[in-house]
Amino acid sequence: MLHFESTGTRIGLTELYTSEGCSSCPPAEHWFSRFTKDPELWTSRFPIAFHVDYWDYLGWKDPFSDKKFSTRQRLYKHYDHTQRIATPGFVVNGSGWNGWFRGQNVPTAEKDDHVGILRLNVEKTEGNARSSLSFSPTRRFNSLVAHIALLGFDIQVPIKAGENRGKNLRHDFVVLKHVSHPMNSSDKKWQSELDISVPKAYRKQRKAIVAWLSERDDPKPIQVTGGWY
Structural domain boundaries of the chain? Predict the structure, then answer.
């Protein structure tokens, strides 16, 4: 059994929207991989790479792409958290961030923003992660959605078509699986149980599991926890 627990102050995701079909994305992914050695990893830094599907039409289908990740990126713009939809695209702590293009450091979440503690328990089997989440908020929420993502590391993919044809791309923090479900509220706590399958091809490779909460269909994270799986 694995147990993860956030602090009481808000923790955000560091999100990269990327695609194997985009020639501008490999430098961003190479830079993103450096977070594997970040001393704040899994405490105040939670990197996660969503592969979008809107580049797949160029002749190379990204095996990690998912329409719902493209929808997530569009929802950020819909709620005015970001100004554009493009790859590579960054969202940090729920807001669009262009600092990578200027060589800036990634900001951390506000340390005085108290939202509550998120706890994640994971029962591991070879092909499945049975997870339970509980959230003890310090403010009122009307509707919460629980999310869990399984992340893969040091994954090499030879690209045979499209803009990156002939390259061997390396991925870290790539979303292998993602599930979400509305949470239930009782006794001043929010709870949810989710199962997430572990793809057979990646069962022996290094992975991480990350859980976060959002309100309704607004993708902005409220609280995050997780770690090595």
Answer: 2-228
